[in-house]
Amino acid sequence: MALHPKQRHNQRETFQSMFEQTFKNIDDILHKDSGCTSELDYTEQSSWLLFLKYLDALEHDKASEAELEGRVYSFILDEAFRWEAWAAPKNAAGKLDHNAALTGDDLRDFVNQKLFPYLGGFKQRASGPNTIEYKIGEIFGEIKNKIQSGYNLRDVIELVDELRFRSQTEKHELSHLYEAKIKNMGNAGRNGGEYYTPRPLIRAMIKVIDPKIGERIYDGACGSAGFLCEAFDYLSPKATKADDLKTLQTKTFYGKEKKSLAYVIAIMNMILHGIEAPNVIHANTLAENIADIQEKDRYDVILANPPFGGKERKEVQQNFPIKTGETAFLFLQHFIKSLKAGGRAAIVIKNTFLSNTDNASTSIRKLLLESCDLHTVLDCPGGAFQGAGVKTVILFFEKGKPTRKIWFYKLNPGRNLGKTYPLNDDDLADFVEQQKKRADTSKSWSVDVETLDLSTYELSATSPNDAEEVSMRTPLEILEEISTLDAESAEALAAIREFV
C-alpha cells in the first residue's frame, strides 16, 4: 500500500534524524582515534566503510532478483570478504554475533593485511573500467585504513551496519548527509574549494544549460562529483522509460579526478545519488595531450569548477597549444577541445581571467570568443565560495560559432556571504529567469564583441549601471569624499606617531 504524503514526510524525517545521529557518532569515534586527524580523514574513512556496506546491500538485492527469476547470482566478493562474514556476522536472531565478529588487533590486521589487498586486486581482474569491480579495485588501491585502533574500528563498523540502503528514501537521506559531510570538508581547511562548489550555484548552471537525456555530460575536474550528482537529480524526473533510466545509469555522466581522496568521495557520492557504477576515472586530465582528443571523446555538455592557482609543470604545459602554468587556463583549453560542435558548457573561473593582460590570458580569451559563443557571464560576489578567497565568474558558452554579444549579470544577494549566510537557490532565481531573455536590467548588461579591444580581448565585468552611479556625483561631492579620506588618513597617521 502506498504511503500517504504525510507518512512519507514523517518517514524521511525519521531516517534523517537516525542517520544524522549515526554520522555524528562515527565522527566522535574517529575524532578519538590517533590515525584520524581532520574532517578529511573522517569522511575518507567513513566512505570506504559506507561503500562496502552499500556493496553488500547491492549484492543482496541482485541475489534476491535472481532467485525470483530462477537464476543463480554470482557474488562479486568471495564469501570471507563479504560484509556479513568479517564486519557484521549475525546469529540466528539476526543480531551481531560477538563470538564470530573480529575486533581489536585481529580486526585491524585482517582489514590491513587481507581485506584491502584482496579488494585492491579487483582492478587487474575487472573486465573494464566501467564495471563495479574496477571501481572496487580503484578505490581500495588508492586509500588505506587509517583507523589505528581495532576497537574503534569495531565501534564504527557497528554504526555503519545500522545504516540501510534498500529504499530510495534511505539512499536519498544518506546522500543529503554525505553532501553535508563534503561541505564540512570544504569548510575544514585551505583546500576546501577543491571538494565543494555551492550546490545552489551548480543547480543554476544546470538550469541554464538544460541538459537532455541522451546527451553525454562531463566534468574533467570533478572533485566530489557535485556537478554530475546535481545533473543526475535534474534529469532523473524526466526519465519516464526503462531505456531512459539505463541511459542515465551507464551512458550519461563522465568524470575525471586526479586526487585519490576526492576520487573516492566522488564515487561514493554518485552511488548514494543512485548511479551504481559511476563513469569516473582516477586520472590527471591535464596529462592528456589535447591534440589527441577525437570526435568520439567529445561531450554534449561540460559542467566544471576546475582548480585555479596551481602551477603546472612544463611537461604538462606541453600538452596544450597555449602554454601557461595556471591550471584553470589549461582546463579551459581542454574543455573547449572536448566539446562537440553545438555542445554547451558552464565553467567556473576566477574573475581575473576576463582582464589579465598576459599572453596566455589574451590568447585563451581570443580562442574562446572565436571558436565559441560566449553568450553569458555570471559575475559572482565575494564569499560565494567559502574559504576560496577569490572572486569568480561563470562562463556559459556554446561551441561552433563565434561570439557576437555577451550578456553579463552581476549577482548581488544583498548581504555578505559566508558560512552563516551562504548562497541559496533564491539568490540565483532572478539570474536564471533573466538569462532566458538576456535583457538589460539594473543587474545585467550586454557587450558587443565588435566594441572590444582586439589587441587584448579584455572582458572586464564592469557594469555600466555602476559607471552611471559614479558619473552622477557632482564635483563638490567628489571633493568632499577626498577631504573625508584625507582626514581619516591624518587621524591614522597621528595614532601611529603616538606609538613611535
Q: Summary?
A:
The protein has 18 helices and 9 strands.
Please tell me about this protein's structure.
- This protein has 500 residues and is of the alpha/beta class.
- Helix content is 49%, strand content 11%.
- It folds into three domains: 5-186, N6 adenine-specific DNA methyltransferase, N-terminal domain (Ferritin), CATH 1.20.1260.30; 192-462, 3-Layer(aba) Sandwich (Rossmann fold); 469-495.
- The chain has helices at 5-32, 39-68, 83-86, 104-120, 122-125, 132-142, 150-162, 168-186, 199-209, 226-235, 242-250, 260-273, 314-317, 327-338, 359-371, 425-437, 464-471, 475-499; strands spanning 217-219, 253-257, 279-282, 299-304, 339-350, 372-379, 392-399, 405-410, 444-448.
- Mean pLDDT is 85; it is low at 189-193, 468-473 and 491-500.
Q: Mind sketching the topology for me?
A:
Layout: H1 5-32, H2 39-68, H3 83-86, H4 104-120, H5 122-125, H6 132-142, H7 150-162, H8 168-186, H9 199-209, E1 217-219, H10 226-235, H11 242-250, E2 253-257, H12 260-273, E3 279-282, E4 299-304, H13 314-317, H14 327-338, E5 339-350, H15 359-371, E6 372-379, E7 392-399, E8 405-410, H16 425-437, E9 444-448, H17 464-471, H18 475-499
Parallel strand pairs: 1-2, 1-4, 2-3, 4-5, 6-8
Antiparallel strand pairs: 5-7, 6-7, 8-9
